[in-house]
Specification:
The protein has about 100 residues and is an alpha+beta fold. Helices cover about 15% and strands about 20% of the residues. The strands form two sheets. The chain has a four-stranded antiparallel beta sheet with strand order 3-4-5-6, with no helix packed on it. The chain has a two-stranded antiparallel sheet with strand order 1-2. It starts with 5 loop residues before the first strand and ends in a 7-residue tail after the last strand. The structure holds zinc ion. The site of zinc ion has 7 residues, from loops.
Length: about 100
């Protein structure tokens, strides 16, 4: 099965949803559109809030974040496991645990 990042808010507790209703509503609305989600969870369990993700090239090596309006394919690498993830879909397209950092 194809791997994909998930939304941290998909597993939010009722208490979290009550405390942050705007975030809860936003993340409910984006649904499967992971490009609009800023709370990714990698299949390895790492999340935006913990180890985080870095912009990377097709080989998982860190790159500068693209300029606004850039048409370059945007990818992120998981800082814990090195999975390479397409920003547009959240799909895992590779893995390089030894990706270089800037
Ligand atoms: Zn990961």
């Amino acid at each position: 099965m194809e791997e994909k990042v998930t939304c941290d808010w998909a597993t939010a507790t009722e208490a979290d949803k009550k405390q942050f209703p705007d975030f809860a509503a936003y993340h409910q609305k984006h649904g499967d559109n992971m490009a609009e989600c800023d709370a990714w969870v990698c299949p390895c369990g790492n999340s935006t809030d913990t180890g985080g993700f870095r912009p990377c090239d097709a080989n998982g090596n860190e790159v500068e974040p693209p300029d606004a309006g850039s048409t370059d394919i945007l990818r992120f690498a998981c800082n814990d496991c090195g999975r390479i993830i397409l920003h547009s879909t959240g799909e895992v397209v590779g893995r390089n645990p030894n990706g270089t950092l800037l």
